[in-house]
Specification:
The complex is a heterodimer of chains A (about 350) and B (about 400). By secondary structure, chain A is an all-alpha fold. Helices cover about 65% and strands about 0% of the residues of chain A. Chain B is of the alpha/beta class. The chains are: A mainly alpha (about 350), B alpha/beta (about 400).
């Protein structure tokens, strides 16, 4: 296969990075072998991609559980982002101005501190930032002041002025770069970072285009071979998609993710969740046809681990399947509880 | 290791230590003489960080609040003068496990820089993953007690961690119940799954430098434990101190099932004291009851009774006076805040004694290590508590 065509490994990594889940078998079949640039662009254009990006942002801002905003404006963001009628900056502004954010960060001091720290990386204890904190608090309280070099007199101005800063653009790009590459944006060099920030400043809609370009680049494609641990969100969503062929509800995802967070190593709890799902009457597992054990094993490896079984693996799995009491469910459970399934 | 982070934290820590040392009473011969004869009798250690900020005035000086702890004290040694320095929960509790006063912020969400006793025992004494456990009620920070970011130790040598409240809660139970009842796993199922699991080629998983995959056998054992626990009653515990209760009950089950060599327990609910002194006392009493159950379970277990040491201490105390909400904060620098207690009972310790010497909370770590034959001086500021030993 030519290097600019998407491999299954690439499709899986992209789906995990952008959709927080593995591809469904039909998606794998459709996308594998297509030009990488097209796969990347199509995936980023999906509403689901924007939904997951937004969820990751809400998680970053700790807007979870009772603080999770449920307003029409927030709920409508994935559609607007996918259609291009809202930008990443618009979405961030909606988040910061949501009731959930104000409840999570009540009062002028906490609100402005958190906005400055999370959006610009400022440490408000430092003298220079302290002055901005004081000015921001004045704006928050409805008094006119000069904040980050601009005049304003409202809480909305605190957000507008903050999100207009290059430091905000750089931080948001950096956070997404870490998510996609596992490395800070700065590893690209100062000149490249400044060029990216300038590009986004000049074209308000450029943000997701930059992310899409990153996931087509040679360094991203090359890194696909090295596996990364799945995030808790990815683990839960993968189990739901792989076993129940549906997305988890918010409550299912939240409670399972909270539980996974309670253990230093999520593998044992993943094994528990896998078993409960596989034992569920709602489980949708591949069908094992007598005499086609090797094909079944191959299909399961491709679907759940994203790779061909080795000859030894195929042989041993088929042999076990031929024994009394063995079933296709044993194969799926072995793969879902394997160490390898915890990585993407 | 990140030198800039290290130097900042180490600077703060060393400053705090030096300041503390200036106030300290003479330490006598601690740590300067030969190790006592540490019998091989102690095979298991249960270390309870009675954390959340607890004054000795409300515990060992109010025996009616803690009849069970007093039972343990009568079977072991009480140290009524244990000096602490950090008064943020995370750093202070972490100090107990690292043997150094850790200058960590109250909301810090990163592991410490110094190896914990869990990591030291796993690496230096080659204890297995299943031998070292931590049952915590400290939320997301609780996981961070399991391992540091120290380049020679770290996650590869972490304790297994269970945050009972994060897993055994009604919300998760509802989600899991919605999936239906799990089918019982037969011995044949397990055999088949083990064979299939063993057949998966480990070399197919290429990881980033520095990452290691978990041990599948340990994963399987822990998963079985969690599944059993989910079917039990821990998820139904509620009310003040529920998280602490779950942590202690989970620990008792861990002890029964795994018989770990080291079991840490970190509590947190006493911090309700900020808003209510009465609720705080209620938490102390409930925790005492649970610790009593744990102690009794050890005494009734033939494999644990004569081989298990139990150590209990808070990470710090609380203010001398009530705040405006009739609660107790932790920040006045008083003796009530900075001097706590240690109760320790075990086969290698004296019985029914009260120590006169002042010790420090960071002395517990090297003492636990010594019970396993480890004499560590490098990277630990605490000293062996010789006065405990028979």
């Amino acid at each position: 296969m030519r290097s600019d065509l998407a491999t299954l490994a690439y499709v899986r990594r992209l789906c995990f990075d952008v959709l927080n889940r593995p591809p469904a078998p039909a998606e794998s079949a459709a996308l594998t072998g297509m030009p990488i640039e097209r796969v990347s662009r199509q995936t980023w254009r999906r509403r689901e991609a924007m939904e997951e990006w937004l969820e990751d942002e809400l998680w970053f801002h700790l807007l979870i559980d009772r603080f999770r905003p449920q307003t029409k404006a927030i709920l409508g963001l994935p559609d607007r982002l996918a259609q291009g009628t809202a930008t990443a900056r618009d979405a961030t502004a909606e988040i910061l101005l949501s009731t959930g954010f104000s409840l999570r960060n009540p009062g002028n001091d906490t609100f402005v501190t958190v906005v400055l720290e999370s959006c610009l990386g400022l440490t408000v204890q430092e003298r220079k930032a302290r002055a901005e904190l004081d000015a921001g608090k004045q704006l928050y309280d409805g008094r006119r002041a000069r904040f980050l070099g601009q005049d304003g007199d409202s809480q909305a101005d605190v957000v507008r002025i903050t999100l207009g800063q290059d430091a905000f653009r750089e931080r948001l790009l950096d956070r997404n770069h870490r998510r996609l590459f596992g490395a800070p944006l700065a590893t690209r060099g100062r000149a490249a970072v400044e060029a990216l920030v300038a590009r986004w400043r000049d074209d308000e809609s450029a943000f997701f285009g930059i992310l899409a370009e990153w996931t087509q680049a040679a360094d991203y494609v090359a890194a696909v071979a090295v596996k990364r641990p799945r995030t808790h969100r990815q683990l839960v969503r993968a189990l739901y998609f792989d076993v129940l062929e549906r997305a988890p509800t918010y409550d299912e995802l939240r409670n399972m993710r909270n539980a996974l967070q309670s253990m230093a190593d999520p593998a044992p709890l993943r094994a528990v969740f896998s078993k409960l799902m596989l034992d569920s009457t709602a489980a949708k597992l591949p069908v094992l046809v007598a005499g086609e054990e090797r094909d079944f094993v191959r299909a399961c490896f491709l679907r759940y681990l994203g790779r061909e079984p080795t000859q030894a693996e195929a042989g041993e799995f088929a042999a076990v399947l031929g024994e009394a009491g063995a079933s296709g469910k044993h194969v799926v459970q072995a793969l879902l509880t394997s160490v390898e399934y915890g990585y993407c | 290791m990140n030198p800039s982070v290290l130097s900042r934290r180490r600077f703060l820590a060393s400053g705090a230590t030096a300041a503390g040392a200036a106030l300290a009473l003479p330490r006598g011969l601690l740590g300067k003489t030969l190790l006592p004869r540490l019998g091989p009798r102690t095979q298991h250690v249960v270390l309870i960080a009675f954390a959340g900020g607890v004054r000795k005035k409300d515990v060992i000086e109010s025996p009616q609040n803690v009849p069970n702890l007093m039972r343990i004290a009568s079977a072991g040694v009480t140290c009524p003068s244990v000096r602490v320095e950090n008064v943020g929960h995370y750093g202070a509790a972490l100090s107990i496990f690292t043997g150094r006063f850790e200058a960590m912020g109250i909301r810090e969400n990163e592991p410490g820089l110094d190896p914990t006793l869990f990591e030291r025992l796993r690496k230096d004494r080659a204890l297995g993953a299943g031998d070292v456990w931590l049952s915590t009620a400290s939320g997301a920070q609780g996981r961070l007690f399991a391992a540091s970011s120290h380049p020679q130790y770290g996650p590869d040598y972490a304790a297994n961690v269970l945050d009972g409240d994060g897993i055994f809660n009604p919300e998760l139970k509802k989600v899991l119940d919605g999936l239906g009842k799990p089918a019982p796993e037969t011995a044949r199922d397990r055999e088949l799954l083990d064979r299939l699991g063993a057949a998966i080629d480990e070399d197919a998983l290429v990881l980033q430098k520095g990452q290691t995959a978990p041990d599948p056998q340990n994963v399987q054992r822990v998963a079985g434990f969690v599944l059993d626990q989910l079917a039990g009653k821990n998820a139904q515990i509620s009310g003040p101190g529920a998280a602490d209760q779950k942590a202690i009950r989970t620990a008792a089950d861990l002890l029964r099932v795994f018989k770990p060599r080291v079991l840490g327990i970190t509590l947190q609910s006493a911090d309700v004291a900020h808003g209510s002194y009465n609720a705080y006392v209620e938490v102390i009493r409930r925790n005492d009851e649970e610790i009593g159950r744990l102690w009794d379970a050890i005494q009734q277990d033939d494999a644990l009774r004569d081989t298990t040491a139990v150590l209990v201490l808070p990470e710090f105390g609380r203010d001398k006076d009530l705040n405006e909400r009739n609660g107790l904060d932790h920040g006045d620098g008083s003796k009530e805040l900075l001097e706590v207690f240690l109760v320790a009972a075990g086969p290698d310790f004296k019985r029914g004694k009260v120590m006169k010497d002042e010790i420090q909370s960071i002395d517990v770590c090297p003492t636990v290590l010594a019970l396993f034959g480890e004499r560590v001086e490098k990277g630990i500021d605490g000293k062996l508590i010789r006065g405990l030993f028979a």
